[in-house]
Amino acid sequence: MARIWRFLLVCSLAGAHAQENATPQSSNNQTVPTLNSTYDYIVVGGGPSGLIVSERLAETGKSVLVLERGAPSLFSSGGNVLTPWNNTLTYFDVPALHMFLGMPGIDARCTDVPTGAAAGCLLGGGTAINGMQFVHPPTFDFDDKWPEGWRWDDVKHAAARLYERNPGTLTPSANGKLYDNDVRDVVSKFFALGGYTEVDTNEEPDRKHKVWSYPALSTQQGFRAGPVRTYLPLAEKLPNFKLQLYTKVIRAVRAGPLVTGVEVESATGQRSIINLNKGGKVILAAGAMSSPRLLFNTGIGPLEQIEIVHNGTTNVTLPPREEWVESPVGFVRDHTIVIVTFNVPGGTDVLNQTEFLDPSKELRELYAHGSGPLAQAWNRLMSYTTVTNDDGHKTFIQTHVTGLVNGTAQFLVATTHNSTSTGTLGITADGNTTWTKNPYLNSASDREAMTKALDELLAISRLPGSPLSYSAANATGASVLQVALSQQDPKNIMIPGQHMIGTTIMGTDDGTKNGSSVIDTDCKVYGTGEL
């Protein structure tokens, strides 16, 4: 039980092999060799963005190099973090085992990101370690927030192509059955009592008020899906595609606006330069918490962050000071989650965590056919609604419900669309990214919205016939939130959503000219030409 709570609180060798060029470059008093192999596209990061973008680019016939700092993940990709009960399955393959990916020895998470944040430093990035939630977005996510050219009508055909390869499912077992669902049965009655309606959230993604759904998961045939399973095999068939693991990118090599390649570091600490072909591009896809570090190391970002790199201990070669590009890199949003635990007076019978780590013969046989509890993720039900603050501001609320202990139901209540809390990401002298401003529930509007969302759940629990009850009979949304903010009780605590966005935000207002955007609507970093 303690291990699962720790999970919830957090979520929740080969170097370059090309021959060296005879012309070395200098990096802070070090001689850094330049490799002979050059590419049309160098993609930094083997996560969802990097793998999908690189596969699509490779389809054009251009040469593509993907650089991933971590190890393989799924067994099909060469992963070797095997389950103790099957030597052809990794912990990353089996949906139910994702809650144990923080265990010692698995080493899948980045260690140079802000305290409490979770990012995947392995092939697949976050899609290799996350909870596999695959909720198709509502159209208003794009229409309300994105610039022209990126509204839903602009991207819907691309979304359809993605869903064709990686559709997601509400029935993860191959036999179509759902398992270990006492909590779902109880909580669906709870929501019905509160006036909520059941929907298929991926068939009706715009319905986000007083609805509940079975969890939509990125799984296929009982396995974790995502780009390592659905895009990478297609790319690896192409002769112009290369994936290089265990290779950490330090910076883009830049002279003024011209980007010519990247500086990388192997697992043994050896650095080298990989150059672009003429007219080529470097594509940063290192994630919301690591792409900013690469920009800082390239001399792009708030000047105080570049100064930290300049005075730091990471031996990064920056462009001359007069070529630093001041840009608002590091603005960030995340979903704030409050965990609240309700009692089930009628009782529930849920699987113990040890039954996932050492499954019975029955569970193994089910999973051999892509079915059973091992084919499911941790949550059993999701709900969506909106709350309206006293000033009329509407905030969208998403709730994940699970059962970790018999007789209880855990609600993970998140502020989502229209939340107003923001933060900023910076860098430390030793190269870690860090919060310079924590983005969690720091606006009065979001605190009011969360309070109202909790009040609604408490009110439903007090209706006649409610299958749930709350232990503190006089509790209010405000008092529950106060306990959560105190971070004292793991059954009622605030955690990060781990859904960071915005650190290299897109827009038409050039951030190098006092605007708020880091990249333009062609994804080009303002102040550069090939990045």
From TrEMBL:
Belongs to the GMC oxidoreductase family. The keyword Signal applies. InterPro entries: FAD/NAD-bd_sf, GMC_Oxidoreductase_CD, GMC_OxRdtase_N, GMC_OxRtase_C. Residues 1-18 form the signal peptide. This is Glucose-methanol-choline oxidoreductase N-terminal domain-containing protein. Pfam families: GMC_oxred_C, GMC_oxred_N. Keywords: FAD, Flavoprotein, Signal. One of its GO terms (molecular function) is oxidoreductase activity, acting on CH-OH group of donors. PROSITE patterns: GMC_OXRED_1. Residues 120-143 form the Glucose-methanol-choline oxidoreductase N-terminal domain.
